[in-house]
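Postdoc handover notes: sequence design on the structure in folder B. Input tokens:
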């Protein structure tokens, strides 16, 4: 089995996956969302302390499988440096204790492999990655052959939901609460601008939309529940329309036969619906990660780790470093 550790942000998770048939033997995740909720975002030092408590507790539960471990995979890039460090330290300790090789996994590659949990990989695909840290279109040919086609110039898709939720005092993370409120709201009440809609550029941007919401809020007094729902719905409509407009452009340019959406924000059902319809129109096969594996988890890191294991893509302990800012998946 591959033992995998994920601690790049606010989820502490460990998974064990069988190499031969990708079967997920053990998977546990302790989310810190509640702890960060009152701050409206993740507080790195708090997150790091909580990982230091949670990871050993999860490992204790997985103790019976340790004799079967053939390699330890850990997320070492990108993410918050102080939280990545917790997972990497545990991985190094396990490497020494179990005498098995180490694998460093890029968190974004992990999200892509959330598509293939308990499955063979099916590539090539064009992939849209939407999370709290990233918004990217990728041309994914293989584990070690992917290219970034478009990325965000500023905020990410998930982050814009978090910030809009914070402005309205709705806590963290903002994605699920905004999506829920949007179902009760009038999406045509506010005419928020779709970012870069007049630009030919294959890029994303969410800071302008966020500021448009901020401006609308500053002009309103005593927000009612209906006002909040209408803002959520109008914002979500523009945010998803932006993803669609740019992805359609990429479809025109690259003509993919298969497309997938991954990342924590790919749990958004409105997003799934709109992209499913567009792909049906174009006869492009579309897939999504299962809902339980969209957000950060170690099962996806273990699944990606198996590809590295098969390639003998190991890293020496002294070379395994935390790389908080690496965001290019291209190899
Ligand atoms: O992939 P993920 O768990 O963590 C990162 O790698 O960033 O993604 C978390 C992000 C958060 O910004 C959260 O608000 C967003 O995904 N998210 C959503 C939804 N569920 C989670 N955004 C929009 N709609 C949702 N239903
Ligand atoms: Zn993530």
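Designed sequence:
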């Amino acid at each position: 089995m591959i033992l995998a550790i994920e601690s790049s942000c606010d989820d502490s998770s460990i998974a064990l996956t069988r190499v031969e048939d990708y079967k997920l033997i053990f998977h546990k995740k302790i989310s810190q969302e509640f702890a960060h909720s009152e701050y409206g975002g993740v507080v790195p030092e708090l997150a790091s302390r909580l990982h230091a408590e949670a990871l050993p507790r999860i490992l204790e539960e997985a103790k019976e499988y340790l004799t079967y471990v053939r390699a330890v995979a850990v997320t070492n890039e990108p993410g918050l440096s102080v939280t990545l460090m917790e997972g990497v330290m545990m991985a190094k300790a396990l490497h020494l204790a179990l005498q098995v090789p180490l694998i460093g996994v890029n968190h974004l590659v992990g999200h892509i492999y959330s598509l293939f949990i308990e499955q063979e990989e099916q590539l090539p695909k064009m992939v849209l990655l939407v999370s709290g840290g990233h918004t990217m279109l990728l041309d994914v040919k293989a584990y070690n052959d992917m290219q970034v086609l478009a990325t965000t110039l500023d905020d990410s898709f998930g982050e814009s939901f978090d910030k809009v939720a914070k402005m309205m005092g709705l806590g963290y993370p903002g994605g699920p609460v905004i999506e829920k409120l949007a179902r009760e709201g009038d999406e045509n009440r506010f005419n928020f601008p779709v970012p870069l809609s007049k630009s030919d550029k294959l890029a994303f941007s969410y800071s302008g939309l966020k500021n448009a919401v901020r401006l609308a809020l500053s002009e309103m007094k005593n927000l009612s529940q209906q006002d909040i729902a209408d803002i959520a719905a109008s914002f979500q409509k523009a945010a998803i329309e932006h993803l669609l407009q740019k992805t359609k452009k990429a479809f025109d340019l690259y003509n993919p036969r298969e497309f997938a959406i991954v990342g924590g924000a790919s749990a958004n059902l409105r997003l799934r619906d709109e992209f499913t319809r567009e792909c049906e129109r174009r006869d492009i096969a579309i897939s999504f990660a299962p809902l339980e594996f969209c957000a950060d988890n170690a099962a996806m890191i273990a699944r990606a780790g198996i590809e590295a294991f098969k390639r003998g893509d190991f890293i020496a302990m002294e070379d395994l470093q935390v790389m908080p800012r690496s965001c290019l998946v291209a190899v």
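Context for whoever picks this up: The pocket of zinc ion (ligand 2) is lined by residues 107, 111, 131, 264, 296 (CB under 6 Å). Don't rerun without checking with the PI first.
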